Amino acid sequence: MHSFMKKGLFIVAAAGMIGSFQMETSAADTANAGTLSISMEAVLKETKDEYINKEDTQTVIMQEDTEESVVVPEQKGKYLNMAFANISSGYIEVKSSPSQDSDWVGKLYSGSAMTVLGPVGEWTAIQSGNVKGFVETSSIMVGEEAQQEAREREAQAFAENKEVTFSYGETKEEEQARLQREAEEKRRKEEEQRRKSGQAVVDFAKQFIGNPYVWGGTSLTNGADCSGFVQSVYAHFGFSLPRTSTAQRGVGRAVSYAEAQPGDIICYNGHVGIYAGNGQIVNAQDPAHGIGLSPATYTSIVTVRRMF
Prior knowledge:
The protein is α+β, with helices and mostly antiparallel strands. It contains five helices and 18 strands.
């Protein structure tokens, strides 16, 4: 029988003994009964003081103006086996066995919560999410300190009217999957940004459609030749391109025409333009047509260059 249950039975039994004793005593024995009652009150107070603050699921509490005891459920013990990663940055490796030489099976990050599975020594067996293994005890927060941390997080969540949640570690496989997702998301965002930047180049270049072609010119309003037009458009976006169409074949990085996106530079033998999408380029064509749109495949393509 649990110790507090034994003491609870003793309290109830003692209370019964007091009542029986007082019924049998005469008025002349009142003084002695009072002395015994005071002694029993001291015993009850000692029992109450011993259990009132225990980290347990139940607590024995004496009701006011009565000698009966009641068992009141406690919530303080629900975080009894909880622990937290005690680091401000980086991670803690969870090992497959209690040794630095063993393989790591997962990682805990700052604030990661875990459940203590075994005795706390130099190493502690824990589980955090799907990670199960061993960590050095010096790297985690355990005991009353961890329980207090959990209660504070709980109180903060209640104050903000939020659900009480904890973050957990991740297995080696979960980390690999997360890193792959993050890399794919990074590539997606970079590709989206390239597309937006390329489209911005096209939108800017199209403003000058109808302006004149001028051999050797670089003015987007007063006239430019093919390479002068490309050079001036890209200068608006902070790029310093060479002056001739031949030299512009080496800028940026090469992509295939099948991969061409708006904003790419398409180079021909003796000509250059900016890919506008839908199989067209915006370019300074010749003195008869000025700056306008032309089919991207009007002649053989030498190379396609991407600046973003």
